[in-house]
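Sanity check

After download, print the first record. It should look like this:
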Amino acid sequence: MKPKIISTKHSGMNVHINALNNLPIDAKLYIEEKEQDLLAKEETIQILQAKIRRLEHLSHLKDIRLGDLQQRINMLEYRENPRNKFRTQMKRN
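Expected structure tokens:
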């Protein structure tokens, strides 16, 4: 009679429980250690991805703020001397 193989999905890897039972204890410990390392690295990746999303959002907010400040500068320059602004625009065209 063939032994029943139970498989489970763990961190994207198929692990055959029956096959693990036949391994020496040091091999089982090594596999368990590697699985723990994998879980820790996956968690680190998720944390870093969240930080990247946050930094991208902050960068976007800074771009919006810089655009707003540039518009304010342009308006103040125009208010101080609207004729020079008009002449400068005419020279560019």
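If your output differs, re-run the checksum step. Summary of this record's structure: Residues 1-7 have pLDDT under 50 and may be disordered.
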